[in-house]
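queue> pop job 88
queue> type: inverse folding (structure -> sequence)
queue> payload:
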């Protein structure tokens, strides 16, 4: 395929320069790596309660997060880039969550979805076994408020995370920049 006739994606970081013999693509390697990394995020699901239903809806036909580059949800942490924590975390599940996070390859990102994952939700004050928030177990990059948050909120958070990865932000910068994605 001739580069001069190829369609360039609108968010591709490179530039196509026309020459007499064809085209040349010029781009910084970091920009291409960040673009590729942001458009191939594979989520690991960690759904423990009602927020999991909203997370499943995002993968369904109506919202279809595959068309945004999030592809299929993975069942193993070794193939995942972002873990979506949806629901209540109890003390018995906290070590499992930490183990899953540790098994993910770098760079890895964490999204806390719903009031229970962010702050323990309504269950924190009524029981001894609920963790006050996912950030007490693993570092969280993006918080999605709501009880339960709508599927659009999760899709917005994923797209916002994708944009920050494209911009080349580090995990610390992402955590500082996007405390709450709503």
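queue> result:
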């Amino acid at each position: 395929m001739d580069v001069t006739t190829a369609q360039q994606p609108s968010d591709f970081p490179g530039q196509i320069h026309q020459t007499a013999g064809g085209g040349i693509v010029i781009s910084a390697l970091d920009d291409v790596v960040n673009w590729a990394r942001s458009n191939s995020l594979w989520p690991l699901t960690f759904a423990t309660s009602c927020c999991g239903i909203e997370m499943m809806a995002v993968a369904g036909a109506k919202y279809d997060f595959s068309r945004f580059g999030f592809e299929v949800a993975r069942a193993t942490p070794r193939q995942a880039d972002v873990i979506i924590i949806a629901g209540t975390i109890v003390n018995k599940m906290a070590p499992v969550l930490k183990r899953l996070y540790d098994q993910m390859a770098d760079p890895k990102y964490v999204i806390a979805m719903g009031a229970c994952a962010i702050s323990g939700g309504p269950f924190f004050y009524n029981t001894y076994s609920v963790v006050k928030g996912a950030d007490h177990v693993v570092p969280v990059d993006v918080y999605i408020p709501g009880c339960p948050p709508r599927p659009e909120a999760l899709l917005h958070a994923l797209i916002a995370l994708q944009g920050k990865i494209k911009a080349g932000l580090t995990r610390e910068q992402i955590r500082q920049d996007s405390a709450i994605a709503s």
